[in-house]
């Protein structure tokens, strides 16, 4: 089974980004959408990032249009929306699919490594969150309705644990 650092993504501005770059960091990976009932969580994610980035937290948002067409814009529109409305400064990937035949390999890996309720490997909706420790192990999966602020304790615990 591959490890998290074996994957690469394309950033919202079209540049390749190897997750190897984040080795030794705590990662929070979230599928996002600009027109979702949970979109306000972008602000909460940015607050987490501002609070913990100096301690080693990295957040990557993955815009996805697979749930109710809630991310219809192109890269420029997504970036502008996230910056203007929520001050997002954490990394954003190019728009991806998280389910089905076209799912990004990273998201297939996340869903397989940390299944959801009743063992489901499908991502149920926007703002599903995966928390990864400093060694690249996927520690937790959080449902869309779980607010970013409620992840603080889990993030703090992982930040206190040095990489092996």
Automatic annotation (TrEMBL):
It comes from the Bacteria. Keywords: Oxidoreductase, Peroxidase. PANTHER family: GLUTATHIONE PEROXIDASE (PTHR11592:SF78). Coiled coil: none annotated. Transmembrane segments: none annotated. Belongs to the glutathione peroxidase family. Residues 1-160 form the Thioredoxin domain. One of its GO terms (molecular function) is peroxidase activity. This is Glutathione peroxidase. The keyword Transmembrane helix does not apply. The keyword Repressor does not apply. It holds the Pfam family GSHPx.
């Amino acid at each position: 089974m591959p490890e998290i650092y074996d994957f690469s993504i394309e950033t919202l501005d079209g540049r390749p980004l190897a997750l190897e770059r984040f080795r030794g960091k705590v990662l929070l990976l979230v599928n996002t959408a600009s027109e979702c009932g949970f979109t306000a969580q972008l602000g909460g994610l940015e607050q987490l990032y501002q609070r913990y980035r100096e301690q080693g937290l990295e957040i990557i948002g993955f815009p996805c249009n697979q749930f109710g067409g809630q991310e219809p814009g192109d890269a420029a529109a997504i970036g502008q929306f996230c910056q203007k409305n929520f001050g997002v400064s954490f990394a954003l990937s190019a728009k991806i699919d998280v389910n089905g035949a076209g799912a990004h390999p990273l998201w297939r890996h996340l869903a397989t490594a940390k299944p959801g309720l009743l063992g489901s490997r499908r991502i149920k909706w926007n703002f599903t969150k995966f928390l990864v420790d400093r060694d690249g192990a996927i520690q937790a999966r959080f449902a869309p309705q779980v607010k970013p602020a409620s992840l603080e304790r889990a993030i703090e615990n992982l930040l206190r644990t040095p990489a092996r």
